[in-house]
Write a structure and sequence with these properties.
The protein is mainly alpha-helical. The protein contains three helices and two strands. α1 packs across α2, α1 crosses α3 and α2 packs antiparallel against α3.
């Protein structure tokens, strides 16, 4: 029986790759209504994403640079959607 290895989708930028890794680890989610990225504030998911980045960085990128890209994306997003009304 022919077995195929699942391939990761082609990611064109380091930023896009970091978003993909964070999403796969469950560290971020998308606002269902508006599509904005949101930080889930899950420390275990963040650590999984950082471990994955260090263990399997994209070709030509050092593990340190890959982990820095993950941290940069996390620092650039919040835990709420800017378009959703605040819940009090």
């Amino acid at each position: 029986m022919l077995m195929t290895k699942e391939r990761r989708p082609a990611i064109r930028t380091l930023h896009g790759w970091a978003i993909f890794v964070l999403d796969e680890a469950g560290a971020i989610r998308e606002c269902e209504e508006h599509g904005w990225m949101q930080d889930r504030a899950d420390p275990h998911a963040r650590e999984r994403a950082l471990d994955s980045a260090r263990r399997d960085p994209p070709a030509g990128v050092s593990p340190e640079a890959a982990a820095a890209a993950i941290a940069e994306v996390l620092d650039s997003i919040g835990d709420t959607c800017p378009e959703c009304p605040p819940t009090d």
